[in-house]
Amino acid sequence: MTEQSFEGWMKSIQVEMEVALVKLLPSVTQKPARLHEAMHYAVLDGGKRVRPLLVHAAGALFDADVAELARAAAAVEMIHAYSLVHDDMPCMDDDALRRGKPTVHVKYDEACALLVGDALQAQAFEILAEGGLDAARQLAMLRLLAKASGSFGMCGGQAIDLASVGLTLSLQELEQMHTLKTGALLRVSVLLGALAGKALSENEIAALDQYSSAIGLAFQVVDDVLDATADSATLGKTAGKDAADNKPTYVSILGLEQSQALAEKLRTDAYRALEQFGDKARRLRELADLIVQRKA
Amino acid sequence: MTEQSFEGWMKSIQVEMEVALVKLLPSVTQKPARLHEAMHYAVLDGGKRVRPLLVHAAGALFDADVAELARAAAAVEMIHAYSLVHDDMPCMDDDALRRGKPTVHVKYDEACALLVGDALQAQAFEILAEGGLDAARQLAMLRLLAKASGSFGMCGGQAIDLASVGLTLSLQELEQMHTLKTGALLRVSVLLGALAGKALSENEIAALDQYSSAIGLAFQVVDDVLDATADSATLGKTAGKDAADNKPTYVSILGLEQSQALAEKLRTDAYRALEQFGDKARRLRELADLIVQRKA
């Protein structure tokens, strides 16, 4: 495994993930078929699968079972996919384009998009509850995923984000918002992957949290940089939307150059957090590189 | 406990439930405060708490720990509450009144209502994952709740309901829809309550499922009867809405008299299913009575 190039590793995880997601989604041959079709539409053929990659990369730290990693990764990815479906709806960000395709409420309808998100969230918890690890560890993973998804995690971050449109946020407030909105799910990806390998010591959790914080913020800083500099075709979503919506971003607060420097600093922080894990952390380091260097 | 009147028992569960829900919801003193306030608004001071009553009544079959029952009941009730918040939204049933109060999207806004529902679902799974039963049983409860909530349960039923507006459903199709939309959550209430007491035999599960099917359908039949006969003030929601929306109902298919006779027959079925449990099933029998005889 460690001989494989990062590109090759990433591609193989992405392909395996697609297979796992199809298997773990409700079949489109079962009723209600339109809902199940829309769930597939929302989840499959989607993006770089950063969260599943993090689950697998963290699982490599402790040689976790690959099938259990695929299950945890699918659960996190379904939470992520549901949040995108709901965030794109007219009452939230009102976005018509996602990953170069019409968003779910455009392709289907709003009621369907609402239900797709709701059903995907339930499906995520069901999948994780059906894992084959010892019950206590499986329960710990469920607790972490639920907390990362709820009002002290992703949903809370989205609420703060909505409330901050048109406001001037401080850098600290912006960071808090993203720590919840995006960071919580990235963090839980790392933790679930590691937990699938073994029960974690406090020291290990602290190191993984440092890594997650660094890449979580880097992810957002780079997002803001790309939103300000890339075009819609490259991004696969509407570019320049944050500025148009008058949303505070790292670029609007720090400027472009300082934002890029911050992303580089965060990559260094991420590397430092992984030192104790040695060569087994290779994929996590490479993912930090990916997050900072990505062009879309 | 068994000396207590049904009214007294019900009242005490309802009061205890309110306390448990406040304790198990995120505090409104914590950020994001508006989201947390809206979550409280959606869940507290809400209705008869039929599902929590079922959890406690089923728990009495096997002398389950009351704190564990309260936790399971709160989890089910949060799923129920989130589904009401989302169902009331403009893109679904577009209802402005719920339990005599403005619905969440009217009182707050649509984006907030969407997030309230999403966060409540996560909260439900978090609460249940934090229970104190042995991990294997707790996991089994989580699997049941997730399945009952998702596309083969409540969300699936809602999808079929939306797709059936303006269509002529057969009695069997109508039953299938309600079995998912309302029945799945009532069934899981009974199963979680019983499971909080002990691991269940197949025979016990079959009996409880018969009971749940009967009261689940009775619940819907009576809902349809009330929607056709009661006024909005008594119901605490907009009466006559199904007819106005051209939705198929038991009353529109069977007529009023036959619908009332069906509800009575279902009560008898529910009683019969409980025979093996003897006196310990007293509260479950009384809840079947409540469901059939309720006026709102």
TrEMBL record, chains A, B:
Its cofactor is Mg(2+). GO terms for molecular function: metal ion binding; prenyltransferase activity. It comes from the Bacteria. The keyword Cell cycle does not apply. GO terms for cellular component: cytoplasm. The keyword Transferase applies. SUPFAM superfamilies: Terpenoid synthases. CDD domains: Trans_IPPS_HT (cd00685). Keywords: Isoprene biosynthesis, Magnesium, Metal-binding, Transferase. Pfam families: polyprenyl_synt. PROSITE patterns: POLYPRENYL_SYNTHASE_1, POLYPRENYL_SYNTHASE_2. One of its GO terms (biological process) is terpenoid biosynthetic process. InterPro entries: Isoprenoid_synthase_dom_sf (IPR008949), Polyprenyl_synt (IPR000092), Polyprenyl_synt_CS (IPR033749), Prenyl_diphosphate_synthase (IPR053378). NCBIfam families: FPPsyn. Belongs to the FPP/GGPP synthase family. This is Farnesyl diphosphate synthase.
